[in-house]
């Protein structure tokens, strides 16, 4: 009889992005289920995933009454289904499912940490969220962390010990699809022609959620100064505006607004990478910079903030450049280096792509995940 495995996530998008490839290879060995906040229980069928989708209303925001109802729902499902393994991703789904799994006596309870929301907080807020992560780790039997530097951070912070935690492969939850994320010269020409971008224009790209703690406003300030020195630069900012900061971005860049292009969510981000020259991730916190790996797969060097998660994949002067988070003048200087010496774009981009090929392909990460699950099956 196959072991029963249940994945728990807050968002359907998280399942699609982080779990689908693993599930596609696990489904022949395990009986899979997915608990997620969704109104579409058949969303995995077109992806050829054989798994029962069980909808549970797990909210991202804090709501004690709704969270308690979700906890009870999870407990009842775990007791009824008698899963052998429950594996959660994302903070809220992790806390609730590890608690419910503990009380329901699920034998193996795995949670994957993908970054700490409290890292840059102070006072009672930091204390509260840190306690939540400690409780999640306490109720889990195994902890996965999606980057080595993040694992070191949560060990140093007393969230989990070294014996209970591990990293899959070199890091990342799902790895990079090298076929999807590959350079396309036709796409580059198409996009650059659409926006009137000259061949010698240097395009800097940010791709991700538009939030203040992602450092997007710092990037706008850095670009404003950079443009005064180098008129032939462009900035693309792509992603859903969760903090409603598009107007603030454009106000910061008022003197060079014709060189700044802000666009919402797109379903083919790989096209943006082909059109760009340098990727920027000026974030204040990251679990693992998967988007940096995706950019590198297309041949882009990256400029990232010097924080855990990013320092695992951006190597100063080799695959890109690092700067202190929030230091927008230093960020501008790092950007200027690529403008002054465009040959760095090619040489660092090639090394960044080689790093992904050696360490972060989806095949390598999924193979390591399958081995991890087989190890769980052998564990007492």
Distance between the termini: 17 Å
What is the name of the CATH superfamily of the largest domain? Glycogen Phosphorylase B
How large is the share of residues in beta strands?
A: 15-25%
- Compute the gyration radius: what is it? 21 Å
| Series of H and E elements | EHEEHEHEHEHEHEHEHEHEHEEHHH
What is the count of distinct domains?
2
Helical/strand content category: alpha/beta
Fill in the CATH topology of the largest domain. Rossmann fold
Top CATH class of the largest domain: Alpha Beta
Instruction: Please state the second-level CATH architecture of the largest domain.
Output: 3-Layer(aba) Sandwich
Which helices and strands, and how do they pair?
Blueprint (H helix, E strand, L loop, with lengths): L2 E9 H15 L3 E8 L13 E5 L8 H18 L3 E5 L1 H13 L4 E6 L9 H17 L2 E4 L2 H9 L8 E3 L17 H10 L7 E6 L8 H14 L3 E6 L7 H7 L7 E4 L5 H7 L2 E4 L8 H8 L4 E4 L14 E4 L4 H13 L2 H17 L2 H17 L2
Parallel strand pairs: 1-2, 1-4, 2-3, 4-5, 5-6, 6-7, 8-9, 8-11, 9-10, 11-12, 12-13
Name the descriptors.
380 residues; globular; 6-stranded parallel β-sheet; 7-stranded parallel β-sheet; Rossmann fold; alpha/beta; 13 helices; 43% helix; 2 domains; 13 strands
């Amino acid at each position: 009889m196959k072991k029963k495995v249940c994945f728990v996530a807050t968002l359907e998008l998280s399942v699609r992005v982080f779990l689908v490839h693993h599930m596609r290879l696990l489904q022949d060995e395990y009986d899979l289920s997915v608990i997620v906040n969704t109104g579409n229980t058949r969303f995995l069928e077109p992806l050829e995933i054989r798994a029962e989708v069980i909808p549970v209303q797990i909210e991202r925001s804090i709501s004690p009454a709704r969270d308690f109802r979700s906890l009870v729902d999870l407990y009842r499902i775990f007791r009824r289904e008698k899963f052998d393994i429950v594996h959660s991703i994302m903070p809220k789904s992790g806390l609730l499912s590890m608690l419910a799994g503990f009380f329901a006596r699920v034998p193996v309870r795995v949670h994957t940490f993908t970054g700490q929301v409290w890292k840059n907080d102070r006072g009672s807020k930091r204390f509260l969220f840190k306690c939540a992560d400690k409780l999640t780790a306490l109720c889990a039997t195994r902890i996965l962390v999606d980057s080595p530097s993040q694992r070191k951070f949560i060990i140093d912070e007393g969230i989990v010990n070294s014996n209970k935690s591990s990293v899959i492969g070199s890091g990342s939850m799902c790895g990079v699809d090298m076929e999807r994320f590959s350079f396309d010269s036709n796409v580059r020409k198409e996009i650059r022609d659409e926006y009137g971008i000259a061949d010698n224009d240097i395009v800097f790209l940010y791709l991700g959620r538009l939030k203040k703690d992602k450092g997007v406003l710092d990037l706008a300030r850095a670009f404003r100064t950079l443009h005064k020195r180098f008129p032939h630069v462009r900035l693309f900012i792509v992603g859903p505006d969760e903090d409603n900061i598009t107007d603030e971005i454009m106000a910061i860049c008022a003197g060079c607004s014709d060189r700044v292009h802000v666009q919402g969510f797109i379903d083919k981000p790989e096209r943006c990478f082909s059109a760009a020259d340098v990727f920027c991730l000026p974030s204040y916190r990251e679990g693992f910079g998967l988007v940096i790996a995706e950019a590198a797969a297309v041949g882009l060097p990256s400029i990232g903030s010097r924080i855990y998660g990013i320092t695992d994949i951006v190597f100063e002067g080799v695959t890109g450049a690092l700067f202190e988070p929030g230091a927008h003048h230093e960020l501008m200087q790092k950007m200027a280096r690529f403008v002054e010496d465009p040959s760095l774009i090619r040489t660092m981009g090639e090394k960044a792509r080689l790093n992904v090929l050696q360490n972060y392909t989806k095949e390598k990460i999924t193979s390591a995940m399958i081995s991890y699950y087989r190890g769980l099956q052998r564990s007492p």
